[in-house]
């Protein structure tokens, strides 16, 4: 039972309300909680792989991975919570509701794609390692060709200037350029060999291995399933009836406290006979404005009062 309550907490809703629901609803929220736990694990693995690959430090990867996994999961839970149906009175607007839900789902899809890519890199690590090695060799080859081309031109110019007393000076310049070619090439080889080209690996993965997008779709579905389970809980279910009763009672209770405090401040502290004025009949939800029952006179009545 404790494990179920833990998963109910992970679902982003009140576990005490969920406990009052029927078996099918409790099972639904248990499933949501399990999926959120899986999503947190995927976020941690993804962030750990990403930051370890970028920073090349295991401990930093673990610490930052845990932090970002916690942060992403909390954002996801917040989005999941906002998909719950409200029990408060409101003016319905289907278009606004559709746009609002669509934006949240698109954001969830974006998060799932970001989380998916480092995991895909791990799954395709062997072929990617070979592709990155080929990329490194091509990079070194291009750099070597450009360096040699540039310095060979200088050496050629110095060789043309080998005349008389200046021979020793130009010979030193030629030797210096030859040594510079070797130094620059070896320095580039060291830099390339140290780098794991993590971002380049993801680029290669997306271009060369389209099958990796199947993993993206799978993780996207994992992220979407809890939203589906949450959205399609019926608004007349025990869960929503209980949830809406608790929330409405809490809001009304706090509203009454506010009015009492308001009246107390003006009546006792300042000695003014003032009371909080409500302009809506369903305060504090404020969807039904009170009708103005004041009798408004005409312009002729104003003139009669002025010149009477």
Helix content: over 70%
Principal-axes shape call? elongated
How many strand elements? 0
- Indicate the low-confidence ranges by residue numbers: none
Q: Please identify the structural class as seen in this structure.
A: mainly alpha
Q: Supply the number of helical segments.
A: 11
Q: What series of H and E elements makes up the topology? A: HHHHHHHHHHH
Largest sheet: none
Straight-line N-to-C gap: 83 Å
* Oligomer status: single chain
Radius of gyration, in Å, reads 35 Å
**How many independent structural domains?**
3
Proportion of β residues? under 5%
What average pLDDT do the residues reach? 82
Overview of this protein structure:
There is one protein chain. The chain has 308 residues and is mainly alpha-helical. It has 3 domains: 2-124 and 209-235, no CATH class; 127-197; 253-307, no CATH class. Helices cover 77% and strands 0% of the residues. It has 11 helices and no strands. It has helices spanning 2-10, 15-19, 23-55, 58-82, 94-123, 125-160, 167-194, 198-208, 212-231, 238-269, 299-307. The longest helix has 36 residues, at 125-160. The protein is elongated, with a radius of gyration of 35 Å. The termini are far apart. The model has no long low-confidence stretch (mean pLDDT 82). The chain crosses the membrane at residues 29-52, 58-83, 95-115, 213-233. It holds the Pfam family DUF4407. InterPro entries: DUF4407 (IPR025519). Keywords: Membrane, Transmembrane, Transmembrane helix.
Layout of secondary structure:
Layout: H1 2-10, H2 15-19, H3 23-55, H4 58-82, H5 94-123, H6 125-160, H7 167-194, H8 198-208, H9 212-231, H10 238-269, H11 299-307
Pfam families: DUF4407 (PF14362)
Keywords: Membrane, Transmembrane, Transmembrane helix
InterPro entries: DUF4407
